């Protein structure tokens, strides 16, 4: 008789239970090609928080294995995509609280205990997010020009000409950032008329910044009522058309990643390692 391979419980999101959601979930494919199911508390009714979960091989998802996996960009990209696709499929059907990548429990009983312990918190947050989606607003300024210094206008000498050129470059740089600050405030004020909540994320640098758009100077997320989504996007795009030297990108709608509660604390593995891993 074959012994079942040890497995861990992978939880993707907290969702508001709804008729037919279980059937939808069973048709989804999770990380590493696993099948999904819903974990519910006893006596849960419509709208009650449920966990969307799958079972993953312990040998490939324990603390030591995850440490190696998170250094493998191909594995990380494929896993993050599968995790995101599950959440987006759930969000198309019901209200969700996305959980971080690789939120793991030693077994289903531990996951159920976490769901029960935080039931009221999850229910309250789901109620607040019902009928809302997340949009991102990013603003960029064009990179500073680095052309050759202009020739001196008089004969005061190369040293003073150099200092004048450096001061002119600094003034131009300061002007760009003042312009960016005014644009960011305008966008924030406009978004506040339509959004229920805002999260200001750190600006993106390096490969995430999108160099073709310029330097990222605003990276905000907004929780927008569904019936105001078109007005929100239209107002931001109107602002963008009137802001010289500023490129604005509106992304979404997304599941409310920026507005979900922190995931429940995952239990420790038998060897003491935390099974919950965040990107």
What can be said about this structure in brief?
Helices cover 38% and strands 24% of the residues.
Major β-sheet, in short? 4 strands, antiparallel
CATH architecture of the largest domain: 2-Layer Sandwich
How many distinct helices? 8
Low-confidence stretches: 262-279
Query: Tell me, what's the shape?
Result: globular
Q: Largest sheet, order of strands side by side?
A: 2-3-1-4
Rg on CA atoms, Å: 25 Å
Termini distance? 39 Å
Q: Secondary-structure element order, as H and E?
A: EHEEHHHEHHEHEEHE
The CATH topology assignment of the largest domain is: Alpha-Beta Plaits
CATH C-level class of the largest domain: Alpha Beta
Quickly count the domains: 2
Beta-sheet strand percentage?
Answer: 15-25%
Q: Care to describe what's here?
A:
With 279 residues, the chain is an alpha+beta fold. It has two domains: 7-118; 133-257, Alpha-Beta Plaits, CATH 3.30.70. The protein has eight helices and eight strands. A four-stranded antiparallel beta sheet has the order 2-3-1-4. Strands 6-7-5-8 form a four-stranded antiparallel beta sheet, covered by helices on one side. Helix 7 (158-192) packs antiparallel against helix 8 (229-241). It is globular. The model is unreliable at 262-279 (pLDDT under 50).
Topology:
Elements: E1 7-16, H1 21-26, E2 37-39, E3 49-57, H2 58-61, H3 63-69, H4 73-91, E4 96-105, H5 108-117, H6 119-129, E5 132-141, H7 158-192, E6 197-200, E7 215-225, H8 229-241, E8 246-254
Antiparallel strand pairs: 1-3, 1-4, 2-3, 5-7, 5-8, 6-7
Helix pairs in contact: 7-8
């Amino acid at each position: 008789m074959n012994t079942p391979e040890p497995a861990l419980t992978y939880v993707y999101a907290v969702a508001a239970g709804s008729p037919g959601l279980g059937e939808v979930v069973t048709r989804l494919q999770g990380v590493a090609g696993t099948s999904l199911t819903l974990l519910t508390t006893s006596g849960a009714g419509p709208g009650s928080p449920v966990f969307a979960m799958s079972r993953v091989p312990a040998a490939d998802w324990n603390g030591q294995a995850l440490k190696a996996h998170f250094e493998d960009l191909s594995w990380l990209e494929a896993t993050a995509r599968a995790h995101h696709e599950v959440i987006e499929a759930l969000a198309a059907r019901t209200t969700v609280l996305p959980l971080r990548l690789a939120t793991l429990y030693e077994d289903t009983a531990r996951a159920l205990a976490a769901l029960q312990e935080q039931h009221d918190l999850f229910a309250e947050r789901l109620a607040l997010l019902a009928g809302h989606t997340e949009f991102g607003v990013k603003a960029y300024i064009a990179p500073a020009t680095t052309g050759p210094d202009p020739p001196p206008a008089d004969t005061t000498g190369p040293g003073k000409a150099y200092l004048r050129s450096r001061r002119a470059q600094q003034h131009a740089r300061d002007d760009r950032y003042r312009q960016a600050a005014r644009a960011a405030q305008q966008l924030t004020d406009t978004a506040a008329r339509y959004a229920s909540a805002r999260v200001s994320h750190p600006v993106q640098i390096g490969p995430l910044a999108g160099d073709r758009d310029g330097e990222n100077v605003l990276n905000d997320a907004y929780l927008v009522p569904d019936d105001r989504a078109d007005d929100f996007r239209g107002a931001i795009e109107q602002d963008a058309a009137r802001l010289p030297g500023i490129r604005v990108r509106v992304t979404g709608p997304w599941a409310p990643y920026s507005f979900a509660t922190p995931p429940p604390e995952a239990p420790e593995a038998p060897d003491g390692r935390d099974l919950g891993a965040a990107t």
